[in-house]
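Input/output pair, single chain:
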Amino acid sequence: MAKFNGVQMKTYNDLMKFMRTKQFAIEVIKLVECVVGYNFMSLRILEPNIKTLGDYSKHVEESTAQQTVYLTVRAAYEFEYAIKRVLSNHGFKTVSKIHNTAEQKNDFGVQVSDRTQTAWFEVKTTQSKNGWTGATHSRGSGKVDNYVLVSYELDRNMILPPVDCPSTGTLHGIFKSVHFSVVDAFDMGWVGDATDSSSFTTAKIHNSQYSVYTPQIILGSTVKKDKWCAIIRESLNPYRVNGVLKSATGGTNVNIAAR
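Output:
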């Protein structure tokens, strides 16, 4: 049997079973909260009037819509690599997207013992409740079958720590509520035509997919509407101790040491 770090490699079923636990989702979100504040340091050094996350976004963009896009992009890559790190910390053999030679867009991969091909995942994050946005960069480019979908609400009134504070990169409580799901072999129904230039597409959960999608939700829920399913977020307050997210076992520490 194939081994990773001297231990038998996990199966695809092991992978999906773990990724669909609250422990996994909470550890990922907490890890993002531990580092995402570093994205907001440089401008605050130059502009001391920036006190909150809302202040920061207003100094960057005038348009409210563009402020939302800016903040979403700031955390997008942290979610990708936090997911990869948490999986590695729990004994899964992860692969960076830079190692994928296939044409399908992806954000990370996991090698499992019962599949010859790497299981590739795409991570989609949004502050919208209406769906997730993606981009297909060529006609030959495809979409993967496995997704981690995150929709969240930010606390834009959060007071940012001083830039000279040792913990300035940590923003515990920045995420107020979250919808978090892990889907596999699921038709996301991307709407939009790919061209040889960047073409943005949008994915929503059709109401006919309600019974298939619902069991794949870890945090939050969904409600059937006329055509699409409404995305419902779940408050993170019950998972916090003194403002810090706790693990499923009751602890508050997340291992961010490199493997």
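The helical segments are 12-19, 22-35, 42-46, 53-60, 64-89, 210-213. The chain is about 25% helix and 25% strand.
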